[in-house]
């Protein structure tokens, strides 16, 4: 986990040459929402979205804080309602 926390994604992001869609949830306790700003800054083709009340696995999270121990249960649910249309719109813009 220490290696993951110490990883600097900027060098890799600067090499991205394809369209990118970056999505995170406002209740994601594993990815800081400010990471979307880093992606947008270093990947000109990136489209970023912060989904309110979504957790790390992009499921709707009714609790005040997401609990990673519940991801297995969360994974049985559908994606947050905003996710499918975001994906469809992003893909349609590229075809």
Q: Which H/E pattern describes the elements?
A: HHEHEHH
Could you give the count of β-strands? 2
Mean pLDDT: 94
Strand order of the largest sheet: 1-2
Write the SSE topology.
Layout: H1 2-6, H2 10-14, E1 20-25, H3 35-42, E2 46-51, H4 71-74, H5 83-92
Question: What this model shows, in words?
Answer:
- The model has no long low-confidence stretch (mean pLDDT 94).
- The chain contains five helices and two strands, in the order ααβαβαα.
- Helices cover 34% and strands 13% of the residues.
- By secondary structure, the chain is α+β, with helices and mostly antiparallel strands.
- The protein has a two-stranded parallel ribbon with strand order 1-2.
- It has helices spanning 2-6, 10-14, 35-42, 71-74, 83-92, and strands spanning 20-25, 46-51.
Key descriptive features of the protein:
globular, 5 helices, single chain, alpha+beta, 13% strand, 95 residues
Brief summary:
With 95 residues, this protein is α+β, with helices and mostly antiparallel strands. It has helices at 2-6, 10-14, 35-42, 71-74, 83-92; strands at residues 20-25, 46-51. It has 5 helices and 2 strands, in the order H-H-E-H-E-H-H.
């Amino acid at each position: 986990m220490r290696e993951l926390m110490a990883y600097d994604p900027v060098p890799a992001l600067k090499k991205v040459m394809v369209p990118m869609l970056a999505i995170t949830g406002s209740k994601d306790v594993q990815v800081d929402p400010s990471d979307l700003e880093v992606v947008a800054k270093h990947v000109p083709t990136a489209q970023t979205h912060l989904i309110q009340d979504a957790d790390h696995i992009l499921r709707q999270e009714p609790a005040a804080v997401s609990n990673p121990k519940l991801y297995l249960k969360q994974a049985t649910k559908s994606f947050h309602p905003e996710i499918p249309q975001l994906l469809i719109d992003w893909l349609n813009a590229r075809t």
